[in-house]
Every structure is written in C-alpha cells, then in structure tokens.
Specification:
OB fold (Dihydrolipoamide Acetyltransferase, E2P); 3 domains; about 0% helix; about 55% strand; SH3 type barrels
Length: about 190
C-alpha cells in the first residue's frame, strides 16, 4: 500500500531503498521557503542500520504489512535462540541479537510474537511486562522519601533497574521489558 511521505507515523514498517525499515521518530517541518517535509528516523529490520530521511508530500513509500505468528521460546543454542511455532510445532533458530535490549528478559517457555516478512522472521516481540526477582538491592538511606527517590537493584537476569526504597532483595516485581523499569510488586 503506497502512502504519502507526510503520512508516515512512528511504528510504521516501510520499504525504502530495497530494505524493510521500522519508523522510530518523525518530525514534521515547515520551513519559511519551500514545501513542508517529514524528517523520519528509522531502523533497518534486516541489518539493524539506522538512518534519517526527509520525505516531502510528493514522495510516496510502500507501507509493508507484516505477518505475526505466535511462537514459544524453547532454549538457547550458542548465540542462536530456538523457538517453536504454536500451531505446527515446527522449530526455528534465530540470532539472539534480533531481540536487542530485551534479550535478558527472554525466559524459558515464554510466549512471543514473531513478525514475518515474506515468510522470513525479522523481529521478535516479547510480552510488554514480565515478573522478575530482585537478587540485590541497595539499603535504604535514612531520610529518603518514598515518593521521590528510587534506588538501584539487580534482577535475577542481571539487568539493573531503579526500584522504590521499600523493595528488598528476594521480592518478586513486575518489570516493563522495553522501558526496563519497575511497574509494581508481583501479586
């Protein structure tokens, strides 16, 4: 589906210069002279490159529809991750760097969504929030108020996040995978 360059929005997947790109940020600019344009920051979903491109309203780009399929994470094999199709039970190996910063949050048996383009997986989407255990938390400094200050803590997957002062080692919490931030105590 073709769209105008000024109709591009964050999260869109577009075809540009023979590659598949995910739009990260946009900025609409209307200079004093000349026509308006859209400054678009995007990331190549095949090789991870990032670029900034200007699109004018006369420019058209192809908006790509990706298929999503439910998979289950089985195990890690070197630097490859093994996933199983929930319908056909077929297994697929993908490089672990496909997950980027969310990689430490992948857990055995976790349900994930794979985005496929022309039957090839190009991204893995984890659940937005997961449950994790605090294995190390700094002691509370006297005089800190619960409303304004957070303290560093380490999760069972090795990721460092900031938590409220009342959270102690051994506590199970809910973590936002993509923001890498504390959401609340696990019930």
């Amino acid at each position: 589906m073709k769209i105008s360059g000024v109709d591009i929005r964050p999260g869109n997947i577009i075809e540009y210069e023979g590659g598949i790109w995910k739009v990260a940020k946009i900025q609409h600019t209307q200079p004093g002279k000349g026509g308006a344009y859209m400054q678009v920051e995007m990331k190549n979903l095949q090789d991870g490159r990032k670029t900034n491109v200007r699109f004018r309203s006369a420019d058209t780009v192809e908006k790509v529809r990706l298929d999503t399929k439910d998979y289950q994470f089985l195990y890690e094999d070197g630097d490859m991750l093994v996933f199983m199709d929930q319908e056909s039970y077929e297994q697929i190996n993908l490089p672990s760097d496909l997950l980027g910063d969310a990689r430490p949050f992948l857990q055995d048996g976790m349900q994930v969504k794979l985005e496929l383009w022309e039957e090839k997986p190009i991204s893995v989407e984890l659940p937005a929030q997961i449950e994790a255990e605090i294995v190390e938390a700094d002691a509370v400094v006297k005089g800190q108020t619960a409303s304004s200050s957070y303290k560093p803590a380490v999760l069972d997957n090795g990721v460092r996040i900031m938590v409220p002062p009342h959270i102690e080692s051994g506590t199970r919490i809910i973590v936002d995978v993509y923001e890498q931030s504390y959401v609340g105590k696990a019930g």
